[in-house]
């Protein structure tokens, strides 16, 4: 899927400053952040996306944001570092680094 490739390639392996750190990142926490921004998703070019990377240290880096499929840029995003992924989020990402979420 072209959109997933575009989203995944935007961050590459670059380090992201200012990350939030949590012990366990869960799908409900991710979805709550998206729901708080529900109004922006009235624009059909914007999608809710997460990218999960396993770091060499064994922790996870998750980029969560609102991605504009027309411009191929993030409208808004945050980076979350976590010691673990909750089972629900791990299952969502079990076969894909990049996931588009439905609200």
List the secondary-structure elements in sequence, H or E: HEHEEEHE
Low-pLDDT stretches: 12-17
Mean pLDDT: 88
CA-based shape: globular
Structure description:
- With 103 residues, the protein is an alpha+beta fold.
- It has one domain (2-10, 19-101).
- Helices cover 24% and strands 40% of the residues.
- The protein has 3 helices and 5 strands, in the order αβαβββαβ.
- The chain has helices spanning 2-11, 27-35, 87-92, and strands spanning 20-25, 46-54, 60-68, 73-85, 98-101.
- It has a 5-stranded mixed sheet, sandwiched between helices.
- It is globular.
Task: Give a short summary of the structure.
With 103 residues, the protein is α+β, with helices and mostly antiparallel strands.
Kindly list the characteristics that best describe this protein.
single chain; alpha+beta; 5-stranded mixed beta sheet; 3 helices; 24% helix
List the helices and strands and how they pair.
Layout: H1 2-11, E1 20-25, H2 27-35, E2 46-54, E3 60-68, E4 73-85, H3 87-92, E5 98-101
Parallel strand pairs: 1-4
Antiparallel strand pairs: 2-3, 2-5, 3-4
């Amino acid at each position: 899927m072209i959109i997933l490739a575009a989203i995944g390639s935007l961050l590459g392996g670059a380090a992201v400053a200012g990350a939030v750190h949590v012990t366990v990142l869960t799908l409900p926490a991710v979805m709550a952040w998206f729901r708080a921004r529900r109004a922006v998703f009235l624009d059909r070019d914007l999608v809710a996306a997460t990218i999960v990377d396993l770091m060499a240290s064994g922790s996870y880096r998750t980029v969560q944001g609102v991605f504009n499929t027309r411009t191929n840029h993030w409208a808004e995003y945050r980076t979350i570092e976590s010691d673990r992924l909750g089972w629900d989020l791990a299952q969502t990402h079990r076969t894909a680094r990049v996931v588009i979420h439905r609200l």
